[in-house]
Specification:
heterodimer, A: alpha/beta, five-stranded parallel β-sheet, 4 helices, globular, B: Rossmann fold, nine-stranded mixed β-sheet, about 25% strand
Chain lengths: ~120, ~500
């Protein structure tokens, strides 16, 4: 079973995304702040991570930068999610999802990244 | 024995050494960027202070808080942290905000940082949430903090004391770091503990007054400064939020005298000018009362055109006739209004009969006049009832009209205001009787039936501190304009509208 880390401080979105991924047969690791997300990336080495940009303690951008410097996790594909569309959020990541997004788009992107389509 | 404090003596001693006595740094004010909110607060928020913003869902708390934040980032280069707790999702909030002109996507996330505090609150309680806020403020070097959904914190608190301590700690943090803090709550009860702990309490309301939904702002408390008390109209438009302070409180202390010397302003009707002793006194207000069709608009426009011929700027502010129709209508009686409009000497402002707000209308008009630094400006308000219809509280009209006309005097504007009377009525009933009290002069236009003919009559009913012709004159609107004829000496009781030829007890019919 493929494992996906979902990190978002907004509970409603975290619950929704996790639920959809679980329904599709993924194992989901949830967390609500950037620092915890980085720790979980190291501990669990998921197949992909869906990460919100604005989170407490560490932003999604900072998390991507930290992950790229850490040889243990620099290969984990990270998808950034944000309500604001900014070109700089699209560099150095496996994907970018502008909120709100269609669930089909989310599943297609995750499927492509983890090779399950 | 406990030592006794002697502050007076210490102060004297400091002065005696020649050193300046210790003094506190005056608190800095922070512009909100919300039109006229700083005016209401007499200078804006205080830097590092904590404010409670109360109001039901839909009253505009989120718009107001975001408007202040984006302005703060743009104007002062500040950084804002916006913490939400079980309110609108960030995605939806940003989608809604993006339709407003103050929104800048490029500020997000570096300078406008939205974060949810709910997980921290749910898992770690108030202490965990406070730690999250503390750390985020430090990391983001925030100069402004918003907590949207304070009621969730109150509900999650184990007791009232814990919640009070949370607000107290937050307020202390804001003061220490000079981070101005807005706490948003949908509670409206001022008895809640948080109201006593913060530096200011602002309430937004959204209530139905008759069929109209009216948003208002009320400042309950504002430490460190005076402020305009009472309710003020609130509008949310494309620009964001704007507030319209109540006219009567805004101009409650008009300056004693105006700048221009007093002259007579001709009306364009020579006989009427003679009756008025040379014209309308400049910087005064004159009410034109009359039933529909008696010629009020014609007379008012004649006054503006006469001014334009002399190079004086004129403003028409009306509610019922759009400018093209107005130009066409008066062209039939020989008045070339369009020419002066094209030359820029007369400006026509038409307020279509939609839902307006009383103070917003007054503000719009006053701002229009303030932008013009010309001398001897003339204003013609066609239909005071347009203002009354805009008022959610008609009982405000007497004080509103008094303050509004005072402000026009202060601006040296000579104003004609029409008031519509009943078409068929033997008695004169003014819908806004207070108008006659706040103006210097009153002219009555009437129809009178005499010998099966309708005549138009004009009489000056009042002219403060000035001699005037008290006769009742007939006037006509011809294809060459307005003509005031000789006095109506042959008839009596004509102000009833049903004239009687002298000596004829049966009346003129």
């Amino acid at each position: 079973m493929k494992t996906i880390l979902v990190a978002d401080d907004e509970r409603d979105l975290l619950t929704a995304v996790s639920g959809v991924l679980q329904d599709e047969g993924y194992e989901v690791i949830e967390c609500a702040d950037g620092k915890q997300a980085l720790e979980l990336l190291v501990q669990r080495r998921p197949d992909a991570a869906l990460v919100d940009v604005m989170m407490p303690f560490m932003t999604g951008i900072e998390l991507v930068a930290a992950a790229r410097k850490d040889s243990r996790i620099d290969g984990v594909p990270i998808v950034l999610m944000s309500a604001v569309d900014d070109p700089k959020l699209k560099s150095g990541v496996a994907g970018f999802l502008k909120k709100p997004f269609a669930l089909s788009r989310l599943l297609a992107m995750v499927g492509d990244i983890v090779g399950r389509r | 024995m406990r030592p006794t404090k002697k502050p007076q003596r210490q102060k004297k001693a400091a002065g005696a050494t020649g050193q300046p006595a210790p003094s506190a740094q005056p608190a800095r004010r922070l512009e909100t960027g919300v039109p006229r909110l700083d005016y209401i607060l007499k200078g804006g928020l205080f830097t590092g202070a904590t404010y409670l913003l109360m109001g039901p869902p839909g009253s505009g708390k989120t718009v107001l808080a975001n408007h202040v934040c984006y302005f703060h980032v743009g104007k002062s280069g500040g950084r804002c942290v916006y913490v939400t707790l079980l309110v609108e999702s960030h995605t939806r909030m940003l989608a809604h905000l993006s339709a407003l002109e103050f929104f800048r996507a490029e500020y997000v996330p570096d300078r406008m940082f939205y974060v949810s505090g709910y997980s921290a609150l749910r898992e770690q309680g108030l202490e965990g949430l406070l730690a999250l806020i503390r750390r985020t403020l430090r990391e983001k070097q925030a100069t402004m903090l918003v907590i949207d959904g304070l009621e969730s914190i109150s509900e999650a608190a184990p007791d009232v004391q814990a919640f009070r301590e949370f607000v107290h700690d937050l307020s202390g943090l804001a003061g220490l770091t000079e981070c101005t803090t807005l706490l948003l709550t949908s509670r409206r009860d001022r008895g809640h503990p948080e109201t006593g702990l913060v530096d200011g309490v602002l309430e937004l309301s959204d209530s139905m007054i008759g069929p109209r939904a009216i948003r208002e702002l009320l400042v309950h408390k504002f430490r460190g400064s005076d402020y305009l008390r009472g309710r003020h109209e609130v509008e949310i438009q494309a620009q964001g939020m704007s507030i319209h302070p109540r006219t009567e409180i805004q101009f409650d202390k008009p300056p004693a005298s105006a700048a221009e010397d007093r002259v007579r302003m001709r009306t364009g009707v020579a006989t009427l000018d003679q009756m008025l002793g040379g014209g309308v006194p400049s910087g005064s207000a004159l009410a034109l009362l009359g039933a529909p069709g008696t010629g009020k608009t014609m007379l008012g426009l004649s006054f503006l055109i006469e001014g334009a011929k002399r190079g004086e700027h004129g403003y028409y502010f009306g509610f019922y006739e759009p400018p093209p129709r107005l130009c066409e209508k008066v062209s039939k009686v020989g008045m070339d209004l369009e020419r002066w409009v094209d030359k820029g000497l007369i400006q026509l402002t038409w307020q279509p009969p939609l839902e307006h707000m009383l103070d917003a209308l007054a503000e719009q008009l006053l701002e229009l006049l303030k932008r013009d630094d010309g001398k001897r400006r003339r204003l013609f308000i066609d239909g005071i009832e347009g203002f009354r219809a805009a008022s959610a509280y008609p009982e405000r009209m007497p004080r509103f009209l008094s303050a509004f006309t005072n402000q026009l005097r202060t601006l040296d504007v000579t104003t004609l205001i029409t008031e519509e009377l009943d078409l068929f009525s033997p008695t004169i009933r003014m819908p806004n009787p207070e108008l006659a009290n706040v103006v210097e002069s009153v002219i009555l236009l009437r129809y009178v039936e005499l010998r099966s003919q309708l005549h138009r009559l004009l009489s000056i009913m009042k002219m403060r501190e000035s001699k005037y012709d008290t006769s009742i004159r007939e006037f006509e609107i011809t294809d060459r304009g307005i003509a005031v004829a000789s006095s109506f000496e042959s008839a009596e009781s004509i102000l009833t509208g049903l004239g009687r030829v002298q000596g004829d007890k049966r009346g003129g019919r």
